[in-house]
């Protein structure tokens, strides 16, 4: 029964090896189906199409992933901020004005870039603000402007523009902005002449007013950070004042060299044109370091508000420059006295006391690095040697400071002398050495950083 087969058509049992059903005559060996050559070709073509589509989707997906990273919002913010703080970079592709009447070009954007070059911390804060999702920061907005490759959103920095006015006190005054003549100011009242400037991006501008008064040409300039439509006062007045600071330093007024201080640290400027927005600082080059004093801002107002000062002719400049409680601008019989402050500068009297006390009785707490300081170790070793000498009955050391120069915002170069006196049974031996030491400000204290190399000034012996 195992070899019995049945007709697929009628179900009748059929003999083994039969080609046709004996009951219904059905063909028990139907012909095989033949696959057409055309069908095979169409299958291959479909596979190629599918492969191309898959590869295209994969390529597009890869490009989209790359583009999403390359043109991400955070990365575009970084590009914008990098251009904003670099006046040498073309920022026009990243910035738009809130008014279509102001051209976005390198010349117009330069003041904005100059400002943020000096205030990079503010630019960093702005960038972080945009990255957190807030697209507004003060006068700036992060706006979408088109797409990269037609897909990825392109962002630009929209900047608010301003149109301030300039006012002065002399008829026929001419005004220039960053060297470009704007025109004459027109009368608005008695001794009041004004002119509204064109639209400007916020930023750092150099404004200058020139006038002729009784045949004498006067001018006043001011570096102004424009960030509003407020009127800029450029009244021209002249003042005589003396700047007292570090000997041979250079006085800068609104960034321009106004002259050098003499060997005593003074420079007198007579009938100098002054504006309210004017600022002054002193620069001093100490070796490779150029150090600047704290600026005296709004010099015109400082003169108006100055109180009567006392005679400081016998007071060394660093004693006043390091004293935050003393006035920066005071009145004098022949005008004003301007004494800029220096951050971290040590006063002459403070330095003298510091060296004098520590040469006689060294305190590790008064040295940078404490007992590991080489200067402390040298003084301690010499004092111990002299204490143990049988030939020296007694000795003393007296410090005298001759000059103090700024070295950095925390360091001062101190030129001082030590008068060593050694008393023996038969004579008195006196030596004077000069040093160029460094004093460092740490918090509210001044510490000796280094004693400096010794230069012998005199060596005398007097018999008892």
TrEMBL record:
It comes from the Bacteria. Keywords: Membrane, Transmembrane, Transmembrane helix. InterPro entries: TcaA_4th, Zinc_ribbon_dom. Coiled coil: none annotated. The keyword Translocase does not apply. The keyword Membrane applies. The chain crosses the membrane at residues 49-66. Residues 6-28 form the Zinc-ribbon domain. Residues 239-297 form the TcaA 4th domain. This is Uncharacterized protein. It comes from Lactobacillus equicursoris 66c.
């Amino acid at each position: 029964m195992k070899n019995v087969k049945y007709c697929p058509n009628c179900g009748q049992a059929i003999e083994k090896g039969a080609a046709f059903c004996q009951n219904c005559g059905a063909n028990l060996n139907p012909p095989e189906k033949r696959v057409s050559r055309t069908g095979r070709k169409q299958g291959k073509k479909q596979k190629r199409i599918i492969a191309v589509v898959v590869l295209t989707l994969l390529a597009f997906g890869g490009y989209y992933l790359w583009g999403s990273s390359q043109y991400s919002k955070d990365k575009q913010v970084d590009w914008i901020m990098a251009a904003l703080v670099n006046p040498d970079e073309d920022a026009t592709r990243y910035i738009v004005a809130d008014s279509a009447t102001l051209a976005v070009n390198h010349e117009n954007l330069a003041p904005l870039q100059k400002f943020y070059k000096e205030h990079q911390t503010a630019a960093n804060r702005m960038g972080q603000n945009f990255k957190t999702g807030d697209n507004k920061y003060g006068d700036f907005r992060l706006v979408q402007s088109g797409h990269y490759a037609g897909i990825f959103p392109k962002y630009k920095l929209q900047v608010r523009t301003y149109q301030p006015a300039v006012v002065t006190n002399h008829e026929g005054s001419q005004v220039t902005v960053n060297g470009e003549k704007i025109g004459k100011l027109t009368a608005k009242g008695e001794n009041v002449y004004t002119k509204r400037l064109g639209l400007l991006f916020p930023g750092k501008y150099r404004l200058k007013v020139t006038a002729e008064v009784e045949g004498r040409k006067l001018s006043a300039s001011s570096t102004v950070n424009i960030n509003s439509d407020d009127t800029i006062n450029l009244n021209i007045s002249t003042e005589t004042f003396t700047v007292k600071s570090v000997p041979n330093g250079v006085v800068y007024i609104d960034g321009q060299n106004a002259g050098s201080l003499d060997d005593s640290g003074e420079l007198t400027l007579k009938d100098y044109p002054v504006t309210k927005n004017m600022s002054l600082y002193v620069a001093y080059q100490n070796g490779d370091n150029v150090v600047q004093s704290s600026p005296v801002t709004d010099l015109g107002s400082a003169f108006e508000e100055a109180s009567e000062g006392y005679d400081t002719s016998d007071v060394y400049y660093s004693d006043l420059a390091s004293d935050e409680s003393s006035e920066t601008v005071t009145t004098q019989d022949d005008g004003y006295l301007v004494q800029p402050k220096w951050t971290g500068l040590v006063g002459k009297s403070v330095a003298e006391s510091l060296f004098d006390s520590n040469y006689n009785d060294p305190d590790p707490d008064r040295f940078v690095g404490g007992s590991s300081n080489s200067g402390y170790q040298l003084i301690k070793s010499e004092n111990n040697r002299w204490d143990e000498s049988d030939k020296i009955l007694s000795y003393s050391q007296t410090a005298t400071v001759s000059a103090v120069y700024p070295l950095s915002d925390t360091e001062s170069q101190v030129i001082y002398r030590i008068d060593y006196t050694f008393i023996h049974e038969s004579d008195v031996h006196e030596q004077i050495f000069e040093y160029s030491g460094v004093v460092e400000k740490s918090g509210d204290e001044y510490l000796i950083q280094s004693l400096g190399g010794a230069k012998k000034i005199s060596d005398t012996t007097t018999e008892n």
